[in-house]
Specification:
The protein has helices spanning 90-93, 95-105, 119-137, 144-168, 179-190, 200-206, 211-222, 226-244, 249-255, 261-272, 276-280; strands at 2-4, 10-17, 25-27, 30-44, 47-51, 56-59, 65-80. It is α+β, with helices and mostly antiparallel strands and 290 residues long. It folds into 3 domains: 2-168, Regulatory protein AraC (Jelly Rolls, Sandwich); 173-223; 230-290, Homeodomain-like (Arc Repressor Mutant, subunit A), CATH 1.10.10. The strands form 2 sheets. Strands 2, 4, 5, 6 and 7 form a 5-stranded antiparallel β-sheet that branches. α2 (95-105) crosses α4 (144-168), α3 (119-137) packs antiparallel against α4 and α9 (249-255) crosses α10 (261-272).
Length: 290
């Protein structure tokens, strides 16, 4: 597979294409890809997502992708290496900000396609991107670097918020998640493909709680058991793979740690009232879990 390397900590490029010229590839850096105009398909890690204006994709170094362009597409690529967030700025080193960076760039979320679904969030990102591009084009001006840093920080935070909503759902109004719960949810997301790290005993040891206390704490914070939450999250990943990939049901079951295809099918039907095969054959491949 082709691999593209970047040696600058940060750069931005804009271009428009009617045909994608690059083979399937990955890179040594992160990319935020903004779609300004156009339609087509984004092939990302064996998934195929339709794209349109306003969509945003975030890729890490191991993500393999290419585009199939249907109509002329204007792209904006914001590329950076991990070194960009390890500079001397005090803000980058704040503990809470470091947790945001770790959450955004080291968790599996690409199987959900565009990171931003809400029209209001897309408009907000578009405004910030315009500021970013203006300051990037006038980097020699006084304070341009400061504005770039804070604008990127705002963009990254909005993306992290959208990923959190997609992964965990909206939180009830007026209820604030504790930092301990946030850290636990991030850990689950990071290790969703490693069943042994999601066992109650391992999680309790990782977060320095007794298994009994962790179980009570999670239920009190979320209203459901820890294992119930992990199962629902896995089934959401199953749903996206059924919608956007050609993987067999047995392959999906193996990837997500179900004992076999039959086990996955039984659990999926319990929540979606359809078998995975029936769900995949729906005209629009949509269902609502109980």
């Amino acid at each position: 597979m082709k691999r593209f390397n970047q040696y600058e900590p940060f750069n931005i490029s804009r271009f428009e294409l009617t045909q994608w010229p690059y083979p399937l590839h990955n890179h040594n850096h992160f990319e935020i890809i903004f779609i300004h105009e156009g339609t087509g398909f984004h092939l990302l890690n064996e998934h195929r997502f339709a794209y349109q204006a306003g969509d945003v994709f975030l890729l890490g170094p191991q993500d393999a992708h290419l585009f199939e362009i249907s109509t002329l597409t204007r792209f904006c690529y914001v590329r950076f290496t991990e070194l960009f967030f390890q500079g001397d700025q005090k803000e980058w080193k704040e503990k809470h900000w470091q947790q945001t960076i770790e959450y955004l760039f080291h968790t599996p979320y690409q199987a959900c396609g565009s990171l931003v679904k809400d029209a209001g969030e897309k408009r907000q990102l578009d405004h910030l991107l315009n500021v970013l591009l203006h300051e990037y084009d006038h980097r020699s001006q006084q304070f341009a670097d400061n504005i770039l840093d804070y604008t990127i920080r705002s963009i990254v935070s909005i993306l992290a918020r959208n990923i959190s909503v997609q992964a965990f759902g909206d939180w009830p109004a007026g209820v604030k998640r504790s930092l301990a719960l946030e850290q636990l949810l991030v850990y689950i997301r990071q290790h969703i493909y490693e069943p042994e790290k999601l066992r109650m005993e391992h999680l309790a040891d990782q977060f320095h709680y007794s298994p009994n206390y962790l179980s009570i704490f999670f239920k009190r914070q979320t209203g459901e058991s820890l294992q119930q939450y992990i199962l629902r999250y896995k089934l959401k990943l199953v749903e996206t793979r059924l919608q956007f990939s050609n993987w067999s049901i047995s392959q999906i079951a193996f990837e997500l740690g179900f004992s076999d295809e039959s086990h996955l099918s039984k659990l999926f039907k319990k929540y979606y009232l359809l078998t995975p095969g029936e769900f995949r054959r729906l005209p629009e491949q949509k269902a609502i879990a109980k």
